[in-house]
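anyone seen this seq b4? input:
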Amino acid sequence: MTFLQMCFLFQAIMSRQLQAHRTVGVCKNVLIEFTQLAADYKAVNLGQGFPDFSPPKFVQEAFCEAIIMSGRFHAHSTDRADKNVWLEFAQLAADYKAVNLGQGFPDFSPPKFAQEAFCEAVSGGHQMHQYTRAFGHPPLVNILAKFFSKIVGHEIDPFEDVLVTVGAYQALFCTFQALVDEGDEVIIVEPFFDCYQSMVKMARGKAVYVPLRPKVEGSTAPSSGDWVLSAEELAGKFTPRTKAIVINTPNNPLGKVYKTEELQMIADLCIKHDVLCVSDEVYEWLTYDGNKHVKIASLPGMWERTITIGSAGKTFSATGWKVGWAISSEQIIKHLKAVHQMSVFDCATAAQEAVARGFEREYELFGTPESYFQQLPAMLQQKRGKLASCLESVGLRPVVPEGGYFMIADISSVKADFNESMSAEDEPHDFRFVKWLIKEKGLATIPVSVFYSPEHRKDFDKYIRFCFIKEDSTLDAAEDILRKLSQRQ
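predicted toks r here
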């Protein structure tokens, strides 16, 4: 352990409680201890308490019956959490059989090597169908630690510094539940993936917002790189109650890839105010035009205070596998483990095995033309160009992303005849526009104002988001719809 690490740990122990109070006393779990012991010694396991047959039929039938309760039975932490824009617009797109450039997942299969790895894992013996290590399948945490140690410049302990989760979503949930207490302030950089806000509120924290803005107010920035953080505005958001800041690079929906100097400015403030950094890096391999993804955890003084979130779904174009991870120092990860073991407990073994094999392949091919981490962004850069050209040709003004697989576009020039029955008048303009585009034109997108706080939503309701990790045939179908739309303007 370095002197800097020892100083940070001493400070965390002596001057500030790192974890949320709800995780105190739940880090040690006897079931995990004896499960690991049984695995280490390859013991005949009559320890874990689960049957290998189904419950009696009457229990199964009873489970299917509706239970009606009177009065309030939900916790305040779930207030307003039942409304989800992704479910709403996904259902709308399905109802109207729209060409879907809204939801962020590929409409093509993962690479062949990933599919083969999954098939081999499923047929790899009974172990692949049973529980694995609760905090991450050993082959997966080993290769994640080996892979990212070289990139971060810090020796990552696979069993202490890595937690495997059910997608990046659960990694974020564990992070906020483990580290945010009631009244803690969490700075969120806008635009942001909307779950950050909900998860902070569910942990009883207070979300504080600071937006990326075009360099010149009122201008249409042609590139996501032209959207920047004001150092003065960001610095003004830090208070004695600030517990963490959340960044997303490459950013969803904007596609901004943070430069080293931008990350250093954030890092300096984190160190100055003794604040944690939650860095959502699920699109880390998808950068274009020579832009390079930089991990903020690699900057001096940041490993000990950064929680890096990753996603196998985004990495290998396999979002349905739902494998993600959080990487940080042992002193932080142990609190995330406490939340994980009391909620999900374990993740799908075969999916983790397949992801491990995928990373092992990429470790050997890293930086070569055969690497999927080279091939996928090269393919997506072409699709990005195709979509941008289409949007420009029909009079929309796209903001060309430096990374990720989304593109936002200014819709100010498009005249839409909103029918009152299609949307509510008090909805933001982009919400009404997207509903009109789905119902009247058959094209699904996402309103960008959903990625902003209520206080800034009005400033950014003239944009909609398109997803371009789609087959060319899907992009062609969207282009046909947009060309017909422009001809009627």
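The longest strand covers residues 242-248. The CA atoms of residues 238 and 478 lie 43 Å apart. kinda curious what u guys think
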